[in-house]
Amino acid sequence: QDGHLTPDSSPRPMTRYEIAACDIVEWSTAHAAPAYLEKIINSSRLSKIAEDIQKDRGLLFRPETSLLAWIFAQTISSNKELNASQEMRTLISYDQINLGFTIDFKGRLQFPVLRDADNYSRDEFIDTLSELQRRAQKGKLTPEELTGATIGFSSLAAYGITQHKPILYPHTSIMLAHSAPLPFSIADAEYVTIGV
Description:
- The protein is an alpha+beta fold.
- The protein is built from 4 helices and 10 strands; from the N terminus they run H-E-H-H-E-E-E-E-E-E-H-E-E-E.
- The protein is globular, with a radius of gyration of 18 Å.
- The mean pLDDT is about 85.
């Protein structure tokens, strides 16, 4: 018997979700370059723009995270070499920027994908991402909407997490991590940690 099993162990087959989660971690470990950079930024301007959008458009929620994701997609669009991956010493460059983002669905992380993310106007992006998030929270996504990410975005701001290092999703080369405001402020500034 394996040495890690004890008399009180109760092994069981893994669920499909658990297998998929392990596959993501294994891919990241085997293929991703071990680089993580982070910076503390003053997000008060971003918050103000999101607040103005919310008021102007009559939105229920302030779209700060969506706005940041849109800026990220636009940034990748002007730096296309970041929209790539590698497999067996071959560089794979993607023509289309497909933004995958983490979302909690009934205690399980999912990674819905917004295709052609850089081709939306700011308001179209916010609306489309919000609709995709709504359907994800209801478990109504198609298999195509859960595959094909070329870049990733993760935010744990809603959970009060002030720093996190996300696992790079398979076949991507970059992921942006957004966190909750840090527990200090100076004047009218609000600081968050952004990681990549």
